[in-house]
Amino acid sequence: MNFILIGLPYDETQTCRKGASKAPNMIRNIFPLLETYIDGIDLSEHFIEDLGNFSKDNLNEIDINKFPIILGGEHSITEWMVDKLKPDNVVIFDAHADCEDSEKHDGVIRRIAEKGFNVYLVKQGFRCMSKEEKKYLDTNKIKIIDIQDLKNIKGKIYLSIDLDVLDPSILPTVGNPEPDGLKFKELIEYIKPIIPNLIGFDVVEFTPFEKDNETYLIIVGKLIYKIMSEVVKR
Length: 234
Ligand SMILES: [Mn+2]
What we know:
Layout: E1 2-8, H1 23-30, E2 37-38, E3 41-42, E4 47-53, E5 67-72, H2 77-85, E6 89-93, H3 108-114, E7 118-122, H4 131-137, E8 142-145, E9 157-162, H5 184-191, E10 198-204, H6 214-233
Parallel strand pairs: 1-4, 1-5, 5-10, 6-7, 6-9, 7-8, 9-10
Antiparallel strand pairs: 2-3
Bound molecules: manganese (II) ion (MN).
Manganese (II) ion binds near residues 75, 94, 96, 162 and 205.
C-alpha cells in the first residue's frame, strides 16, 4: 500500500484557539517515535512519502496517485481537498455542524454541500450547533448519519476528522473544545465501516501549542496510524 502525506498548515479563520498551522510539522516529528506494528500490520513495510506542506495556491501542483493523508490546518482545508479529489461522498466526524453561512472554517461543511457533494455528518460525536445551523440542517442538504448506516454509503468516500469530535479529556488541544465527545476506541470503530470505500482522509483543528503536549501529539499520530493499518488490511 502506498500513502502520501500532505501538510496544509492553514489557520487564517480560526476565532477561538489558534495554532493549527503548527500541527502538520509537529505530527510529522512524532511519527518516528510511534510503534509501527499495529493490529498485525507493520506500517514500516508500506511506502509513505511525505510531500511536505502546501497552501490553497500550490495544492494543484500535487498529482494524487497514492492514498493521501492530509494533516491540517483548520477545517477550511477539507473544502480544498474535496475540490481536488472529487469524491462521491464526504463523511465528517465533528463536534460542530460547521454549516454557518460563512466563508470561514465554521461554514466549510455547508460550502461543500452547496457544491453538490453528498455530505454526511456522523451523528455520534456531533453535539453543538447554532440556531442558524439547525435551520440549515433542516434543509437536509447535509445528511446526519447514524454509524449503523455508514456501511450503506455507495461510491468513493473522503473522510474528514475534526479532532474536536474526541472528548476533551482525551484531546483538549483543538480549535473549539466541546465537552462530552467520543472515546478514541469509539472513533476507530465508527470509521471501520467506511474503510472499504475510503480514498483519503484529513485530520483537522489540532492546535498543539502547549509546552507539554507530547501526549496529545502521540494520540493524533496513533489515530492516523490506526486508520492507515485499517486501510492496509482491506
Ligand atoms: Mn469542524
